[in-house]
Amino acid sequence: MSDIAEIKPIHVMIVGAGLGGIMLAILLERMNISYTVFERACEQLGLLEEVQNISLPCLRMDIYDNKIEQIAFVDVSNYRERSGYDFLMFARPDMHHLLFSKIPPEKVLMKKRVLSIEQNEHGVMIRLADGSTHHGDILVGADGSYSGVRQGLFKLMEKKGELPEVDKANLKMGYISMVGVSDPQDPGKYPILKEPTSNFSRVIGDGTPLSYNTVTVPGNRICWGMTMQLDTTKASKNIMFKNSEWGPEANESMIKEIRNFPSHFGGIIGDLIDATPKEMISKVFLEEKMFETWHHGRTVLIGDGKQKAAWLFFEGLATVDINQHYLLNMVTRWVHGVLQPVISGGQGATNAMQDAVILANCLYDLKSNSPKYITKAFKSYKEQRYPHAKYQMDKSKTMGKVLYGQTLSERLLRYVAFNAVPQKMQDEQFLKDTNYRPILTFMEPPENRGSGPVLPQKPSWRYQAKKKQGGEATEARLTIHYKPDRHPVSV
């Protein structure tokens, strides 16, 4: 009986209202764990389409040279048979809005930028740019590759001589990506919009560092993205910070370089750019780095805060190419949450949400809110996620060379990948990723609707104990309340 006693009240502070941060908030809401989300931006992304119009199924991805002659394709028509669900395409802002709508708005504080953090055995405190301070038991850094939480945590660790040398090195920039989502377009001008499935096309530059892609999404809109391979770092740390993530930036020079490139859909890329509101165009630096430090004390990192890979294939589309049917069930009908992985590259948002699922499972199994048990939970989170995150990062790096590389060796690699590797082998490698499907272990597991196997996952000891104690309960909730007048960390 004492083994499953409810723990003392805890409060989780989530810094970053991106897909990973909001996903974690949804799961904490489900478990009735107190939390607050702090976001430095002044407004939400999205508010574009209704939930029922968020996605279109995709059956294949076509790859062209800069003369719009097809050089390869990726067949995903058997994805549903293997996983049990369609391979979905949707605009990133739509997904963000969907997730945002599932948590109480008063729990998300906008225009809140973290300047510093402090933590001890009693709790953790964040100091914001507006001068306010906030306290909690756990701090989650979900604020992207230039994470203010990670920077603050690393400063604390470096002062104590606890920061690994590998984590002191700067991020390595390999690409610049610009993305946009057009306004609704005329199907008469773009007949491909009449198709019931999403059309994905990628054009690989020849002798130019620029490549670009287009994808159709619901609402007669077209997501587009361009990616430039960098030879050297072209921006200072300050510029990188200001241009990080998905906020609109000064993009005219990059747009000018690609404006007259032909589009597979007809016309030129400039037509799609002109049809895109400025607030729906943004530029982001893509880097590669796996941090050794995922957590320390009462602070833990998820998503790009703990690793940053050039999630290239779809991140440059402002789309998330994931079979998120289980996820959509969970956030719209509160069925069971399973996050389906994607082809390497474009994994960034999925990676962050998978982090959120595993971290939520670990927090559910907390035996105490003492530093000892919080550290144990964080270690379990890293042990479960690290191998999969590392695998996707390495795969994304290889795919980046295949899809964007312009060096002689990278062109040779691309030729071999598109011409020498049997299609069956390509399909099997792609579908292998569907075997990893993180689930919420504090709920009954969903059935496997596909033909492919599912990798085993660490079960929840608390949920299993509750089932034995109380019978076949369909789900479990922690009854936790937070007293906001506590100030465990001295200012």
TrEMBL record:
This is FAD-binding domain-containing protein. The lineage of its organism: Eukaryota, Fungi, Fungi incertae sedis, Mucoromycota, Mortierellomycotina. SUPFAM superfamilies: FAD/NAD(P)-binding domain. The keyword Membrane applies. The chain crosses the membrane at residues 12-28. PANTHER family: FAD-BINDING DOMAIN-CONTAINING PROTEIN-RELATED (PTHR47356:SF2), FAD-DEPENDENT MONOOXYGENASE ASQG-RELATED (PTHR47356). Keywords: Membrane, Transmembrane, Transmembrane helix. It comes from Modicella reniformis. GO terms for molecular function: monooxygenase activity. InterPro entries: FAD/NAD-bd_sf, FAD_mOase_fung. The keyword Protein biosynthesis does not apply.
